[in-house]
Amino acid sequence: MANLVIVESPSKATAIKKYLGSNYKVIASKGHVRDLPKSSLSVDIENGFEAHYINIRGKGDLIKEIRREAKNAKKVFLAPDPDREGEAIAWHLATALGLDPAKTLRVTFNEITPDVVRAAIKSPRAIDMNLVNAQQTRRIWDRVVGYKLSPYLWKSVKNGLSAGRVQSVASRIIVDREEEIRAFKPEEYWTIDAALGAGDKSFTVRFYGNVDGKIKLPDEVSANFVVNAVAGKDFTVKSVKRATRQKLPAPPFTTSTMQQEASRKLGFQSQRIMRVAQELYEGVNVGTENGGVQGLITYMRTDSLRVSVDAQNAARELIAAKYGEACCPKTPRTYKARAGAQDAHEAIRPANVALDPAKVHKYLTIDQYRLYKLIWERFVASQMESATLNTLSLELEAAGYIFRASGYSVAFPGYMAVYEESEEEDARADAHGEQRDLRIPDLEEGACISAQSVTPQCHFTEPPARYTEASLIKFLDEKGIGRPSTYNTIITTIVSRNYVTRDGKSLVPTPLGEVTTKLMKENFSDIVDYAFTAQMETELDEIEEGNAEMTAVLEKFWQGFSKELAKAEETIGKGDFRLPVEETDIICDKCGAKMVIKNGRYGKFAACPNYPTCKNTKPLEAEKPQEVVQKEEKKEPVVADFKCEACGADMVQRTGRYGTFFACSQYPACNFTKQKTKELDVPCPKCQSKILIKTGRNKTVFYSCERYPECDFSSWDMPVAQTCPDCGKMLFRKKGKALLVCHDKDCGYRCEVEETQDSVESEA
């Protein structure tokens, strides 16, 4: 009779099965098996917030299979991920399988490697109900807030909206920043740079002030006054300060810093980062010479900076061998996490530092390799010697005015030979900041140098930058809003619900997001208050640590929230929370009003503003008169920005029975054609290449990998930038239905969504 090990994902099951051998059977629950039903509140507020869970739809056959295996097993080990969510999954599994939680064996793996997996199996524990109750409290909070607030939004703004506990705060953060940007008034200021010396000995200094201190130059007049004063004058060296300083390496990654750095350096969105990190944690086949299937990184949901002694020693051995003894500090480096950080798991690091990125490159996808390389380099650098910098500060005087220059050069690279932390995208360059590798000739105090040129330049102060995913995650982390495991979900949710949209890397609030945030701030100030939300997260931590009781925390929250609900109910209809109306030049032919743009199931259309009195609607592009059509047909064809692959001639745009395509301009001598396609901002689930939006017969839209036929992925359903909460695979929007389904047919995950047609389909 074999032992049964139940994990969350099939990929993790494959790796663990290899390590445990024939006496163990490993199967996957594919995420949660029980949850609150979508059709009702399912939380009995009057009776201690009792939650009424049901088996998730589509998981019935899987639960029966696991129950059958558990009944025949000698022992049952529950091994979901080592966090609150994983502990709750273990508890739900024990309940669904009819196991006694007190006698159920719970095991956790901080990394999926042979030694760690075998050691965990030898040291099982009971299910930690403090962790379970912390997860339940969060789930009940989110359900109560969502169900109680959403109807209010429907009555005040529009139908179909939904509110979230942390998502509403994230929307407010982005809206508040947008309001700061609109209110910002740029101020003029000037700088003056003087080019000194000649030839190889030339360098630049910047105006600072006078002997009494710094002077601001608010306009051209004040700038020109200084320029005229120093024109033709020699610059006298007042001081030359040379020093040496140490630059410390950055600590290993937490979830938050990994998401920030991968966003800045790799350009990945948070959802993509966490999906790839999950793959690296659960296991990848890196070839028989490297040990076959194994997890490449430690658990990726953590805010701890702790590193095991074994990992430190392995890193130090590698550093000494690969980079030299001088790069290895005398004592191992340790880092102190911020106050309130959870220390249950180590920092994110390579599971086996000896597997450097070059060794496993050919076995990884492009995304896996790039993220693994980032994690590996950051960890190795964190255990290396500091860099030594030679700094130089120079001060010169001309006509009573002071000019300065400062910079540094690298004397000993230390950790910088492996990795350097990136800077914030919205960081403004300091007008008097250091320049790297600044070359200044060997000067002595009192030396006089002539100026080649003295150049004034006008600048304007800039507004605060919009949040990117990286800077938003940093803000959430610093304020204690949400937890590392939730940042990805928070951002994905506010974008998918159209409260926020992406403009390049920037996150911009939509009119819907601004109106909803205004409503929330006026009626539910606690829900969108930064400090209040952070305090709620602290209370979850206290429940996890056994210092607070679940029901008491929920009762305390409900006392304040119910009062806000009652007060808001009295003000429904009194506030102005209407969405801005976008007018058109189309006149309603029934009542003469100027029509407005509305969003419907099949995209945008023009509607009469006097609805429901007048229900007239029109497509946004009215039929063109025949003479206009004939005139347009005589226009020169649109020439593509690529050449014919058969003969090298220009390609021109044509329209056929299946839509727009490109044809060789030498037709009929050359009959080469190419379909006109658009790119979908979602990676191919098979090879991570781009997905193209194509048009088939009867102008039917479908989706195909750009590498076809090398990659045979194609689908009538639209891939979306969301992953299945059960198994981590990509989700697809069912064609013609308000339904998301998992790409893995064996998973069976289905989720209803707002019934609107994606703009990408209507564009195609």
Overview of the molecule:
The chain is an alpha+beta fold. The protein is about 35% helix and about 25% strand. It is built from 19 helices and 37 strands. The strands form ten sheets. Strands 9, 10, 11, 12, 15, 16, 17, 18 and 19 form a nine-stranded mixed beta sheet that branches. Strands 2-1-7-8 form a four-stranded parallel beta sheet, with helices on both faces. A hairpin with a 5-residue loop joins strand 4 (about 45) and strand 5. Helix 3 (about 85-95) crosses helix 5 (about 130-155) and helix 9 (about 270-280) crosses helix 12. The two termini are about 55 Å apart.
List the helices and strands and how they pair.
Elements: E1 3-7, H1 10-20, E2 24-28, E3 34-35, E4 43-44, E5 50-51, E6 54-55, H2 60-72, E7 76-78, H3 84-96, E8 105-106, H4 114-122, H5 129-156, H6 165-183, E9 188-196, E10 203-210, E11 213-214, H7 220-230, E12 235-247, H8 255-266, H9 270-282, E13 284-285, E14 293-294, H10 309-323, H11 357-360, H12 366-382, E15 387-398, E16 401-412, E17 435-436, E18 448-449, E19 451-460, H13 469-479, H14 487-496, E20 500-503, E21 506-509, H15 511-523, H16 530-544, H17 550-571, E22 583-587, E23 594-600, E24 603-607, E25 617-618, H18 626-633, E26 639-643, E27 650-656, E28 659-664, E29 673-675, E30 678-683, E31 690-695, E32 701-705, E33 714-715, E34 718-723, E35 730-733, E36 739-742, E37 750-752, H19 759-763
Parallel strand pairs: 1-2, 1-7, 7-8, 16-17
Antiparallel strand pairs: 3-6, 4-5, 9-10, 9-19, 10-11, 10-16, 12-15, 12-18, 13-14, 15-16, 20-21, 22-23, 23-24, 24-25, 26-27, 27-28, 28-29, 30-31, 31-32, 32-33, 34-35, 35-36, 36-37
Helix pairs in contact: 3-5, 5-16, 5-17, 6-14, 6-15, 8-13, 9-12
